[in-house]
Design a protein that fits this description.
Keywords: Membrane, Signal, Transmembrane, Transmembrane helix. The protein is an alpha/beta fold and 386 residues long. The protein folds into 2 domains: 84 residues, no CATH class; 287 residues, D-Maltodextrin-Binding Protein, domain 2, CATH 3.40.190. The chain is built from 12 helices and 12 strands. Strands 1, 5, 6, 7, 8, 9, 10, 11 and 12 form a 9-stranded mixed sheet that branches. Helix 1 packs antiparallel against helix 2 and helix 5 runs antiparallel to helix 12.
Length: 386
């Protein structure tokens, strides 16, 4: 039995050193069939030895080896055949969209003149994108129309909540938008799920208080945030801090599905909601006549100004389906055209028409990107070359 056992051991080792699943499956087949056949033949030889003596079974040595080899061969080819007929095994990968190659035709195909391009916008944010009697206006709308004029496509708007815009290309959403232009900050997490090009606008986000309202009502503070957003995370952190340091409960309204709902409560005089965390330009444009106070220093704000320890820089970008690196580069160049030209730029015209008169100051031109960042079209986001 020594030769048979040695043969089985060698084949099993060789099978497992190969990287393909068929070879590994064959190795398992070899091990099982080889072991079983050896045990069976060994038991049979013991029985013969008991009945007819040791000398008479010597002639069984080579036949037993032949039977073992035949079973081992079966153990090799049957699993291989199964592996061929079965769907290929896919290695596990991080959650997210499937990334295609970098051979897309870019804007020439994605935004072709003979196509109807669906662009997702909020539709409820004054100064950014607001629908009135079927007509849309705002800074994001002007950027969408700039792209329409550049590429010649037919434009159709689609209203999206904050949560909906992040799920457009999750493989589940029906009739997804082709682009999303909705004061949408570029983040690494988002770039891991879909492509983003930009920035086309720079802003800051921070915790704000409605000036006309008291910070506390009957020993409690009230805030509003949309679950799943960065504002919600910041609001939960504030809740923990206030309740730990000041023993003041913070009640967070989590029922809203879009920032517009939180803004309505934040600015309503008869509502106790006094706290909100979001981008300055969005909040300021919503109610330009209402005083807004920064939570950290309790000072009324006319302009949030440069970044501080209590605020974070937001870079707004255009989002699109994953797997289109050339489209990302094309959109980056188009945004460069939009922001170029200083006071005569399309960017400045959009700002003057939609934000300037809504008390969104642009001190030292800090909202205006000097240039886009093509690094957003590279790793690690699927809009890049990966």
């Amino acid at each position: 039995m020594g030769p048979a056992l040695g043969l089985v051991a060698v084949l099993v080792v060789v099978g497992f050193t190969l990287s393909n699943s068929g070879s590994r499956l064959a190795a398992v087949g070899i091990a099982v069939t080889g072991f079983c056949s050896i045990v069976f033949i060994a038991a049979y030889r013991v029985r013969l030895a008991h009945e007819v003596g040791t000398a008479s079974i010597a002639r069984w040595r080579w036949p037993s080896l032949g039977v073992t080899v035949a079973l081992v061969v079966a153990g090799v080819f049957v699993p291989q055949a199964i592996a061929v007929d079965s769907p290929p095994h896919e290695e596990s990968s991080p959650a997210g969209p499937i990334i295609v190659g970098s051979s897309d035709d870019g804007a020439a195909s994605y935004l072709a003149a003979d196509k109807t391009v669906v662009i997702g916008i909020n539709g409820n944010l004054p100064g950014w994108s607001l629908e009135s009697n079927g007509t849309y206006s705002g800074f994001d709308v002007d950027l969408a129309n700039f792209l329409k004029q550049k590429y010649g496509f037919t434009l159709r708007f689609k209203k999206l909540t904050q949560q909906e815009r992040q799920k457009q290309w999750d493989g589940v959403t029906k009739d997804p938008a082709d682009l999303v232009i909705s004061a949408f900050s570029i983040t690494e997490d988002r770039r891991a799920a879909f492509g983003m090009a930009g920035p086309y606008y720079i802003d800051m986000s921070t915790m704000l208080i409605s000036g006309p309202k008291p910070e506390e009502v009957n020993g409690k503070s009230y805030g509003c945030a949309v679950p799943g957003t960065t504002g919600y995370t910041a609001m939960v952190n504030l809740k923990t801090r206030k309740e730990r340091e000041f023993r003041t409960p913070l009640v967070i309204d989590e029922s809203q599905i879009d920032l517009a709902g939180c803004l309505a409560k934040f600015f309503a005089i008869d509502d106790d909601t006094a706290f909100i965390f979001s981008d300055w330009s969005i909040i300021r444009a919503s109610k330009p006549e209402v005083s807004i106070v920064r939570y950290e220093d309790k000072s009324p704000l006319l302009d949030i100004g440069p970044a501080s320890s209590s605020s974070s820089t937001e870079r707004y970008g255009i989002a699109f389906r994953p797997g289109h690196p050339q489209l990302c580069r094309d959109l980056t160049k188009a945004i460069d055209e939009f922001i170029a030209g200083g006071g005569a730029s399309a960017w400045t015209k959009a700002y003057n028409a939609n934000l300037k008169d809504r008390s969104v100051l642009n001190t030292d031109d800090w909202h205006h990107p000097k240039v886009t960042e093509e690094r957003f079209c590279g790793l690690p986001g699927p809009g890049g070359s990966d």
